[in-house]
Amino acid sequence: MFIVQTQIFISQVPTTAFPNRNNEFSLQFSVEIEANDSWADFTNECKITLPKNYTYISTTGNPVKADNTASNIGGFSVNVPLFLRGDEVTVIVGYRYKRKGVDFVDTATIFSGYISKVSSKKPFVLECEDNMWKLKQLPAPNKLFKAADYNLEDMLAEMLTGTPYTVNMIAQTDIGDFRTLNESVMDVLARLRKDYHIEAYFRGNELRAGYLVVYMDPGNNYNFVFQENIIEDELEYIRRDDVVLSAVGYSVNTIAAGGITKDGHAKTKQVRYEVLVTLQNRVFTSKITPPGQKADYPPNQTGQRRTFYYADVTNTADLVSRVQSNLTKYYYTGFKGKFTTFGIPYVRQGDNVSLYDAVLPERNGQYKVKSVEYKMTIDSGLRQTIELDFQIKVLPNYTKAQINGFIKGGFPA
After folding, report:
1. Is residue 110 within 8 Å of residue 36, measured between CB atoms?
2. Quick one: CA torsion of 297, 298, 302, 303, rounded to 10 degrees?
3. Tens of pLDDT, residues 262-277
4. Using an 8 Å Cβ cutoff, are 160 and 167 in contact?
5. Strand ranges for 261-311 from DSSP E
6. DSSP per-residue letters across 44-76
7. Where are the domains of the chain?
8. Burial class of residue 206, CB neighbours in 10 A (0-12, 13-18, 19+)
9. Which of 82, 162, 230, 233 is the most exposed place for a label (fewest CB within 10 A)?
10. Tell me: the pLDDT tens digits for 99-148?
C-alpha cells in the first residue's frame, strides 16, 4: 500500500510590526496542495489549504492552536500572525510503502518559495510563489543598458547584484539598447517576454532567461505505460501530414546610424528583420517583411502558430533557416496534450517521458516535458498532470509481453 506523505516547512520572517516572529513549523497534514512547474508561466505557484481547527507544532516543539482568540492567521488582528505574507515555504510530497517487507519513503520537493497571500476563511489558504515573488519587490535601476556594453544576461546579472540569485550565463543574448525606468525586475522580465518573446524562470536560485536555456538541461528520463501508471489523459495522437505549423521569427539588431551623440557616443539605430514561415505537407513556405515595414501576414486559421526571437540574425535568409529548424521540432507524428499519473516518479519541466502502449505499440514515443501540475487531496491522493512539449524520438514497437516484462524488470535505456 502506498501512503501519501506530505511535509510543509514554514519559516516565519520578522517584520517591522512583529520583529520577533521567528518560529519554524513543520506541518504533516493539509486538506489540499496544488503546485506547478513550468518555464512558460514565469512564476511557479503553490496553494496550500490547511484546517483552522488544528494545533500546529513548531520545530522547537511548541504547540500553537490556530483556531482560538489568541491566534492570528494572516495579520488580521493585533496578535502575532501565525502565517504571514513573505514567510518562507517548502513543500515535500511523496509516498511511504513496503517492498519485500522493507519500508521505503519516496518524496520530492515540489515547491520552494514565499507566501504571497493568506486567506482568513475556514479552512484557510496559503497562496505561494517562487523566487519571482522577490523580483516583484526588487526595483530595477533607472538606466540605459547600451548594446555595446550589455547583453541580456549581463543586464539581468547587474539587476540581481546583492541578492542571493544568480543568472545562467550559458547564452549571450543580444537585445540591443534597453532602457529601464521605474520598474521592478519582474516588470522588466514581463517586457522582455512581450517585446522579444524571451521566457524566464527560476531553477533553484538561478534565473534562466532566453530561448536557449529553456531546453539546456538534458532532463531525467521516466517511463509511463497506458493502462498501468497513466490514470487518465487528454492526449491526441496526430499525424504530421495533418498538421499545419507556422511561426513568426524576428531579430532586432542595433547598427551604426552615422554621426555622434551629444555625449560623444556613435549614433545607432535598431533594425528589425521578420519572417513568417509555414510548414505543411512537409513543405516550407515563407513570407519576408522588409526591414522598416510593418508585417502583414494572413491570419492563423488552420494550424498552430508560434513566435521565435533570435538575438544575432542580420539577414532574412538566416532568419528563415533558423525558423525552419525550430518548426521541424514540432512537426512529428505523435502525441500532443497532457496526461495524469501518480506522484512517483516525480517529474519536472525539462524532463523526458517515454510513453508506451501495449495495445497500440506504434504510438510509443519519448517527449520533452513543458509543464507539470501537482495536486494532493485527502480523497484522491497525490497526482501529477504532465504536459508534453515536443517529441524527442520514436520508440520501438514493443509487444505487450515485452512491455509487461519491462514493467517488472526495467525499461531499456
Report:
1. no
2. 0
3. 776 777 777 889 999 9
4. yes
5. 266-280, 283-289, 304-309
6. -EEEEEE-SS-EEEBTTS-EEESSSTT--SSS-
7. 3-130, 135-214, 221-239+333-409, 241-329
8. middle
9. 162
10. 888 888 999 999 999 999 988 777 789 999 999 999 999 999 999 998 88
User: Three cell numbers at 158?
Assistant: 547587474
Cβ atoms of 126 and 33 within 8 Å: the answer is: no
CB proximity list for 212: less than 8 A, separation 6 or greater:
170, 171, 173
Phi/psi at 385 (5° precision): -110, 115
Give the CATH number of domain 221-239+333-409. 2.30.300.10
> What confidence score (pLDDT) does residue 53 get?
72
Whose cell is 536557449? That residue is: 212
Three cell numbers written together for 300: 492563423
Collect all residues with Cβ–Cβ distance below 8 Å to 1 and sequence separation of at least 6. 97, 98
Chain position carrying cell 511548541:
62
Give yes or no for a contact between 248 and 276, defined as CB atoms under 8 angstroms apart: yes
Q: Is 345 strand, coil or helix? A: coil
Q: Which of 308, 302, 386, 376 is nearest to 351 (CA)?
A: 386
Length of the chain: 413
135-214: CATH topology: Phage tail protein beta-alpha-beta fold (3.55.50)
In the block, residue with C-alpha cell 525606468: 181
DSSP state letter for 265: P
